[in-house]
Write a structure and sequence with these properties.
About 45% of the residues lie in helices and about 15% in strands. A 5-stranded parallel sheet has the order 3-2-1-15-16, sandwiched between helices. With about 575 residues, the chain is an alpha/beta fold. The chain has 19 helices and 18 strands. α5 packs antiparallel against α6. It binds one RNA strand of 74 nucleotides through α6, α12, α14 and α15.
RNA sequence: GGCGCGGUAGCUCAGUUGGUUAGAGCGAUCGACUCAUAAUCGAUAGGUCGGGAGUUCAAGUCUCCCCCACGCCA
């Protein structure tokens, strides 16, 4: 039994995430966590909401609520939706937690002690009307280069020229529209990532088995231009973790907070502390401190490609720079983007399906299956309603659902709602067992390697073997001449249902539970060998014919949904 | 503009260190079966592997150039 620490990239607090976000981190992380638990490993699966920063403040203001209240509400909303998708977090924390405050301040203090923090006085734009410093992207004005009137403070979207906010003509705040802006000097702390460049490069260079997507992004940042740059870790904001050096005040940094990119990944650790403080665990250090039992932990992170730099460079810089025995990530599984019907999902334009909407129209297993079996592993992937409909109907309703339906109903009509007797398994059954054994081994190999799409294809192939078997032995024909033989064939079919309930649970936990319940199966442990796994349900064991496990998506629904989610959500 | 990931059957995608007739699922066509959610099973058709040049006995797989899509950065 091994120990696996698993984290999913933490979703930002301001709103409900879309299916592309879901399949990029939380869902595959859940698949892996469920599989590892099923195989008897000890698993700690953590996630959280990322709550600090300007977007959260603005979203709260728009909602007319104090930012702390807004975040608390949105955290609750996201937690409930996560439950709706059966995301099996051991804890779903908050980056605004007291634990993360203390831990982030402790890391900053430690990094300062190690000489890895430097103070920088820089000029930033202050908006008198808004009463705040404005991040570059919240400043707009006329481009001095091309005259475009909506150039942003960091770049002109029209001519792509890189800009400084002070370059803009008639600069204004995009928050209030005010032009009453001024440049003020402000002091910030920078993490000297450049000092850690070689350490990080060596570490990344040792990871030969990581996805190409992960290492190529990391190496690009390490080698591009002058290499890894120092990065500001503080901001002039109200909402965030106050800048402190451990428990002590940080002279000259009063009223400032840590920059969200610095405190967010530290929440991975803090979430484990929250897990303990919530009474759900007893010892977080044996997961995170290599000097306190975490040296045998395998740590795997899941994330979309946009998050790779933070996990391959920034967070490791924090960990390595501390020179404290924190657990470093062992494997980073990164994903490309899921596109929606020929374009991008768009949060601002409401284009595509968002997590709450998805659950409103179909049970989570439909989404889990489709998204995981089309996970954007090697390149960007494409969601279309046509594909979703045909794939879900074929895989879930026809191949799996109908298998359970046909065998249970046949048994009920020819025998009873109990496993029939019959002779021992014969050559056809031995052949089936051999095929299942081969396929299961492939499934397990791909699951352990986090090859999500291939795992889904393997699982589907295992379902198909059941239909092939029934088709070839044809118990409905056998029954006419040799009811006893038919009974044995049905017994095998019913045992396959139970087996499928067990093997499918990482992908489709609800349907798996329904199947297992219908089969009256108390044993849901992962099979050591197929031969014994298909004898678990013995003659006389009662079962019930389940309701339709997966209904089909109709053409009407498909066209209706395609229209509904085409854009502009209110 | 620089860089990155891609461009393989109608669709969604696999193709290990270059090596016999390029694979899967869906869709299509034909057939079998009738227990089942008009489900299932089998068979067949369908690709000059984005374009061009090169290296090699041999290239989807390596090198160079170009085109297209997407993304990141400046």
């Amino acid at each position: 039994m091994a120990r696996h620490l698993i984290t999913s990239a933490i979703p930002y607090i301001n709103g409900i995430k879309h299916l592309g976000n879901l399949v990029g981190s939380q869902l595959p992380a859940d698949l892996f966590a469920r599989y590892m638990r099923a195989r008897g490993n000890e698993v700690l699966f953590l996630c959280a909401t990322d709550e600090h920063g300007t977007p959260a403040e603005l979203a709260a203001a728009k909602a007319g609520k104090p930012v702390a209240d807004y975040c608390a509400e949105m955290h609750h909303v996201q937690a409930e939706i996560a439950k709706g998708f059966n995301l099996s977090f051991d804890h779903f924390g908050r980056s605004s937690s007291p634990q993360n405050h203390a831990l982030t301040q402790a890391f900053a203090g430690r990094l300062a002690d190690m000489g890895l923090i430097r103070e920088v006085v820089e000029e930033q734009v202050y908006s008198n009307a808004d009463g705040r410093f404005l991040p570059d992207r919240y400043i707009e004005g006329t481009c001095p280069n091309c005259g475009f009137d909506s150039a942003r403070g960091d770049q002109c979207d029209n001519c792509t020229k890189q800009l400084d906010p002070t370059d803009l003509i008639d600069a204004r705040s995009t928050i209030s529209g005010s032009t009453d802006l001024e440049v003020r000097e402000t002091k910030h702390l920078y993490l000297r990532q450049s000092e850690l460049k070689d350490d990080i490069a060596t570490w990344i260079g040792s990871k030969h088995d990581w996805p190409l997507l992960t290492t190529s992004i990391a190496k690009k940042w390490l080698t591009d231009g002058d290499g890894l740059q120092d990065r500001g870790i503080t901001r002039d904001l109200d909402w965030g973790i106050p800048v402190k050096k451990g428990a002590d005040d940080w002279p000259g940094m009063e009223g400032k907070v840590f920059y969200v990119w610095f405190d967010a990944p530290i929440e991975y650790i803090a979430s484990a502390q929250e897990w303990v403080d919530a009474g759900k665990g007893t010892d977080w250090e044996r997961w995170w401190r290599t000097d306190k039992g975490a040296d045998d932990v395998t740590y795997t992170q899941f994330m979309g490609k946009d998050n790779v730099p933070f996990h391959t460079l920034s967070f490791p810089a924090t960990i390595l720079g501390s020179q404290e025995p924190w657990k470093l990530v062992d494997y980073i599984k990164s994903f490309n983007y899921l596109n929606y019907d020929g374009g991008q999902f768009s949060t601002s334009r409401g284009r595509g399906v968002f997590m709450d909407q998805a659950l409103d129209i179909l049970p989570s297993d439909y989404w889990r299956w489709w998204l995981l079996s089309h996970a954007p592993e090697s390149s960007d992937a494409e969601f279309t309603w046509e594909n979703f409909q045909t794939d879900v109907n074929k895989d879930l309703a026809d191949v799996l659902g109908n298998f359970v339906s046909r065998i249970t109903k046949f048994c009920r009509s020819k025998f009873s709602e109990a496993v029939p007797e019959g002779p021992d398994y014969g050559p056809a059954e031995d052949a089936l067992i051999a095929d299942l054994t081969t396929k299961l081994a492939e499934y397990e190999t791909h699951m352990a390697a986090m090859e999500v799409r291939k795992s889904a294809a393997d699982l589907r192939a295992i379902w198909v073997l059941g239909n092939e078997y029934l088709q070839s032995v044809a118990p409905w024909t056998t029954f006419k001449t040799d009811p006893d033989q038919a009974a044995m064939q049905v017994r095998m079919g019913l045992n396959l249902c139970r087996l499928y309930g067990v093997l499918s649970s990482p992908f489709i936990p609800d349907a798996s539970a329904e199947i297992l319940a219908a089969m009256g199966a108390s044993d849901a442990t992962w099979p050591d060998d197929i031969a014994s796994a298909v004898t678990v349900l013995q003659a006389g064991h009662a079962f019930t014919v389940p309701e339709i496990t997966f209904r089909k998506i109709t053409d009407d629904e498909r066209t209706q949904w395609a229209e509904k989610f085409a854009g502009t959500r209110d």
